[in-house]
Amino acid sequence: MGKRVAMLDEVRGIAYIAMIIYHAYYDLAFVYVHDLPDGVDIFMKLLQPLIAGTFIVVAGVSSNYSQNNFKRGVEYFFCAMLLTFVTAIFMPSEIILFGVLHFYAIAAMIYGFIGKFTERIPFVIGIVVFVLLYVFTMYIPRGGVGIPGFGVELPESLYRYYWLFPLGFAPTNFYSADYFPLIPYFFLFMAGASLGIWFKSGKAPRGFYTSRFNGLAFIGRHGLLIYMLHQPALFLILDPVHKLLGQNTMFL
Questions:
Q1: pTM for this entry
Q2: Which residues have a Cβ under 8 Å from the Cβ of 130 and sit 6 or more positions away?
Q3: Pick from 138, 104, 93: which is nearest to 12 by CA?
Q4: From the centroid of its chain, how far is CA 159?
Q5: Which helix (H) or strand (E) holds 157?
Q6: I need a labelling partner for 250 at 20 to 30 A (CA). Which of 11, 113, 172, 211 fits?
């Protein structure tokens, strides 16, 4: 087991704080349907992929430090399906069928099988190859493949089968409030896993292994609990505020 990269815990902690801010914005704008300043909308649309990308890359790095990625993936999958069940019952318009938690659960289970082989790839080559694969496949959920400006459309037949949505081939009537299919995001995860080989070797600058902000590191180490509880906490705060503004709440 390599030396823990404390800075990654802090980065993850920042990402969780940003996630809570983004979801507060999302709830106000799309669940409670409040008009927000255009500048806020633009900023949040730019922030969302940055948050998600950070989570996925850091998750890939952390996979190098897990003693049993498959078991960890199963645990996360249970939590992800609980999230699907809760949103289906209480917020069907915002159901999450394959969000970032579902993605990470499956990615971790896959890595549990292939990690011992991919870890043999020199980390620089791994990062370059997987980033290129991510860029090449990033438009698959939208019906195409290739780099921006030089892409091609994929056959519509690939997007006819509902059960292919975890891979990124979702039909037009598919909806998930949070959607992170295996293609292309598994390649981003694997780029993080390749980076993790370098961190685990202990050859990264010493500062990466030293914690400077213990509060952020604490948040980063308890991310799953925060992820599962932050939305109910946000609704407990926003729902009465929404009611005070003279609007019907989503629950009453």
A1: 0.88
A2: 187, 188, 190, 191, 194
A3: 104
A4: 23
A5: none
A6: 172
